[in-house]
Design a protein that fits this description.
Layout: H1 2-28, E1 30-32, E2 42-43, E3 71-80, E4 84-86, E5 93-101, E6 103-107, H2 108-118, H3 123-128, H4 131-139, H5 141-144, H6 146-156, E7 167-169
Parallel strand pairs: 1-4, 6-7
Antiparallel strand pairs: 2-3, 3-5
């Protein structure tokens, strides 16, 4: 009898400890505006939600950019850190706008295969939407195969892309290239080997 009584007391003690730890955890949860969270206070995109479109290999809902079409944006579901609750949703998830590459269905693999095997007839340029260059390559047998070789290099390096300004369809973790452009607001940091260049 004393053994059962002892087990009941132990069970009640452990049950009360679990309840108090849940209450403490609920009291520590803070409700904030999740658009102001700093790096390290959230994970974006949400690791348990599949937000990659299998057709475009970019975030679902990737929209065309205004100035540069290939540099678009998409609304992505993110996850706040533990003990952070978002005002917007009432839970730990929120939406954030992230950069993506807008695509229009042109595959890098197809363009490269066309360039290697049928580039002398200009089919790679026809596929990418450049009918004038494609016709010139067709009439001159790929500029005597030199234009074909040049196009293989340019398409593989992703310098030549689709004519509508979109990006190639490349696997999300594939060999995509991001071009860094310099503008009038780009600041060049002087290097140690620059000796009083005037």
């Amino acid at each position: 009898m004393s053994r059962i009584f002892f087990l009941q007391i132990c069970f009640l003690f452990l049950y009360s400890r679990v309840e108090t730890s849940d209450e403490v955890k609920n009291n520590r949860t803070e409700t904030v505006d999740c658009s102001t969270l700093r790096l390290g206070q959230y994970i974006c995109p949400h690791p348990q939600k599949d937000q990659i479109d299998p057709d475009t290999q970019q975030f679902i809902g990737c929209m065309k950019g205004k100035e540069i079409p290939s540099e678009g944006e998409a609304d992505v579901i993110c996850l706040a850190a533990d003990e952070i609750k978002c005002n917007e949703t009432g839970n730990s998830t929120f939406t954030r706008r992230l950069p993506c590459k807008w695509t229009n269905g042109y595959s890098l693999e197809i363009a490269l295969l066309l360039s290697v095997f049928l580039g002398m007839f200009g089919l790679d340029r026809f596929y990418l939407g450049y009918p004038g260059i494609g016709l010139a390559k067709l009439c001159t047998l790929g500029f005597m195969f030199l234009g074909q070789l040049l196009d293989i290099i340019l398409i593989a390096a992703q310098v030549v892309g689709p004519s509508d300004g979109s990006s190639y369809v490349i696997p999300y973790y594939g060999a995509g290239i991001t071009v860094i452009r310099s503008t009038n607001e780009t600041y060049l940091l002087p290097q140690a080997d620059w000796h009083n260049i005037t």
